Amino acid sequence: MASKEPQHGGPATPELQVNPLFSREPVTIPRYALPDGEMDPATAYQVVHDELMLDGNARLNLATFVTTWAEPQARRLMAECAEKNMIDKDEYPQTAELELRCVHMLARLWHAADPRHVIGCSTTGSSEAAMLAGLALKRRWRHRRGDRADGRPNLVMGVNVQVCWEKFADYFEVEPRYVPMEGDRYHLSPKRAVELCDENTIGVVAVLGSTFDGSYEPVAEVAAELDDLQERTGLDVPIHVDGASGAMIAPFLDPDLVWDFRLPRVASINTSGHKYGLVMPGLGWALWRDAEALPDDLVFHVNYLGGSMPTFALNFSRPGAQVIAQYYNFLRLGFDGYRRVQRTCRDVATRLAGKIAALGPFELITDGGQAPVFAFRVRPEITNFTVFDISAALREHGWLVPAYAFPPDRTDLSVLRIVVRNGFSHDLADLLLEDMRRVLPRLRRQREPHRDFDDAGAFAHGITAGHRQQSDP
Q1: With contact defined as beta carbons under 8 Å apart, do 459 and 64 qualify?
Q2: Which residues does this entry mark as bearing N6-(pyridoxal phosphate)lysine (predicted)?
Q3: Sign of the dihedral defined by the CA atoms of residues 445, 446, 452, 454, in that order
Q4: For 308-447, where are the alpha helices, taking DSSP H only?
Q5: Domain locations along the chain
Q6: pLDDT tens for residues 65-95?
Q7: Residue 205 near residue 165, CB atoms below 8 Å
Q8: CA distances from residue 140 to 55, 202, 229, 290, 363 in whole angstroms, order as listed
Q9: What's the gap between Cα 389 and its chain centre?
Q10: Class of CATH domain 74-329
């Protein structure tokens, strides 16, 4: 979040000094206020362009799950559609049609029994999609409880969930019930999840591709435990699958894994089109198995854009360009193309994980064999440097590799995580390995660690380890 007050400490001044080469004469521009007058467009472009050179190289950002590479044709289509408002379906009916086609394609990919009757929409990302899914779960619970809906609704999930679920619980007044990590289990336990369920539970969130380590949570086992709970107690608790990453990986690489609408208890699924859907940032998807899973009283109908149209979203106006790019990718790659891309990502991840483990100082937490994401730690016997030292040293070479501590009850475990995305090749992986080999001798010579959790930086992307309050079981 941007600071509310500009920070003027250090070498920065309140003004920008523009080189006369760009503006024909020296120009001073205020940093934190609108300039008094206009500026030549070439000068304005150069000023902004030069400042952005200080940003990191997106291709070397191994912290983010978000797509950082796209084909020129996809970029061209996005530029051609930059002015199109996704909400204005009457003015841009074909953009709306392509959104609907993407929903149907995802419904089939996720084995909906009747894809034509699946309800779905695009969103600005998985965070909005998660909010919508949570709202649907809460409203369904209220409808089921009727006049008895006098308790506080709760949502059961692993403590490893992305921060959007913590936000949902806070913003929409739902009690979060977190299943803690235990030992070598770093995500949801089906039995522990069911123990936290009661008559006020609106649902259980199962994550396919944990932000912390890339692992899949056992959705089918959670469903089986909830089936047993209903048989014993009558409690009917639905599942939402947060497939921000894995829902665009498992269908192509793990076809026998049952996690989706094949399980009757799965009410809804979200994914990030801008992650392994291979679209540039700004796109998520939310799907419900049928109209019953999305209460109609959550859907608004507006007509002031010309023509009546339903809308269920937290945002109103938003760009249609990312939806167009998603449809382009679906056409361009097809099932086999997506399988090839995701297979390559997983191959790079597992190979790189193995080579990092072979360096000596590191121990793998996961190996990239599910989502192409893996986490590793410094071996316990090494006491003179930390994962935070490693992260800082790699940043000197341009690599952004996040270091962070796990949440309760494993805050003792600090790791590095690498996300392999389309565009991160075997060659780039080898270059990363070479830089790791370069920094290790210097770190081995340290007498003690130079950095700890407070030096971790701010690019763990959704992880808030150590800040969550664990609910009592």
Answers
A1: yes
A2: 275
A3: negative
A4: 321-358, 387-395, 426-444
A5: 19-55, 74-329
A6: 999 999 999 999 999 999 988 877 777 889 9
A7: yes
A8: 44, 8, 19, 13, 44
A9: 26
A10: alpha beta
